[in-house]
Amino acid sequence: MATASVIRSATNRPLQRRRVVHGWTDARQAAFLDQIAATCNMAAALAAVGMTKPGLYALRRRDPVFAEQMRNAMLVGYERLEAELLRKAVAAFEDGDTGGTETGDVIVAPMTVDQAMRLLERYQVSQKGTGGPGVREVRHRATQAETDAMLLEQLRILRRQREKQA
Questions:
Q1: Which element (helix H / strand E) includes 14?
Q2: How much is the mean pLDDT over the chain?
Q3: What is the pLDDT of residues 8-57, one digit of tens each?
Q4: pLDDT per position as a tens digit, 64-86
């Protein structure tokens, strides 16, 4: 889909008209947003639609509607990732099975649990509003024992809730 655009001077005088043939079409935007919601993987989503990171950032700056849609797609992706990690934890706790989903659908891109946890941690840090770009919050990093204890407690709670429902 080609669209015409006008290049303007600093005084807003039209300089020339150009046709953008290979830009962020509506179809590419929709495909990119679907990929982000499915995988949380920006590089893979960009590769899937044949676009670049600088082009994405430029689109986000000039199109606030797209920026909001992208933010929402990322939220959906992170929710899917959290749900898949919880499903794997419950499956491992109850059956020892950490295989694919019951429906056979791929919910998130193939990644290790460690990669998924790091991705979720980065997302949570980004949502805290750490004081501006480049400012990192100093935080406690949980030990393996603390993490295991927390997960086991959550799984016990889930088991009790299931027993009450049965």
A1: strand 14-20
A2: 75
A3: 777 777 665 555 557 889 999 999 999 998 888 888 899 999 999 999 99
A4: 999 999 999 988 888 888 887 77
Contact partners, residue 130, CB within 8 Å, separation at least 6: 136, 137
Q: How far apart are CA 91 and CA 40, in angstroms?
A: 23
- Domain coordinates in residue numbering, the chain: 3-161
Report residue 136's pLDDT band, with 50, 70 and 90 as the boundaries: very low
Q: Which one-letter amino acid corresponds to residue 111?
A: M
- Beta-carbon contacts of 68 under 8 Å, excluding residues fewer than 6 positions away, are none
CB hemisphere CA count around 37 (13 angstroms): 12
Exposed, middle or buried, 45 (CB in 10 Å: 0-12/13-18/19+)? Answer: buried
Give the pair of three-digit tokens for residue 158: 């889930």
> Would you mind telling me the total number of residues written for the chain in this entry?
166
